[in-house]
């Protein structure tokens, strides 16, 4: 629906600004269509906050064996929050790919003596993981964390390389890459 609204607004010759839309059921919402610039500063800010919150949430688990899969789950949630047909499709793809790699890494190094765990935030009980997390066995944790850190670095590099061709993307992608890369701090503790 967002794609058709954006295209429709562009066809009307609107020079960037809010566009009101009405959803079924009488709900009215505002869609801001940027005028000739890449992305939206508000959406970028929201995405950066989501990535920072991922680090904070996973850190608050207090269980280092859950860090890799927690980050996987949080990246997946961040990717799911990026609508189709936006300027951030590449970002969504990188987040989804990194999430799947982290999940696979956790699964391959699962602690057979522990079950999956659904984590709830200690500061906000309404915030919890969307799926149970896979604990990594203690004997593999250091190697898994090193591998996961490499995955975060690679995700950042992919974003930076894809932004090289388009000047308007460089600044935003660099900020997103830095936010993704900052999550590897959890893996060093």
Structure explained in plain terms:
It contains six helices and two strands, in the order H-E-E-H-H-H-H-H. By secondary structure, it is mainly alpha-helical. The protein has a two-stranded antiparallel ribbon. Helix 2 runs antiparallel to helix 3 and helix 4 (89-108) runs antiparallel to helix 5 (141-163). The protein is globular, with a radius of gyration of 19 Å. Mean pLDDT is 79; it is low at 1-22 and 32-37.
Give a nutshell description of this structure.
It is built from six helices and two strands.
What key phrases describe this protein's structure?
single chain, 189 residues, mainly alpha, 6 helices, 2 strands, 54% helix, disordered N terminus
Helix content: 40-55%
Q: H/E series, N to C?
A: HEEHHHHH
Report the C-alpha radius of gyration, rounded: 19 Å
Roughly what is the average pLDDT, rounded to an integer? 79
Q: Strand count, sense and closure of the main sheet?
A: 2 strands, antiparallel
C-alpha end-to-end distance: 43 Å
What's the arrangement of strands in the largest beta sheet?
1-2
Structural class: mainly alpha
Low-confidence stretches: 1-22, 32-37
Number of strands: 2
Shape: globular
Count of helix runs:
6
Fraction in beta strands: 5-15%
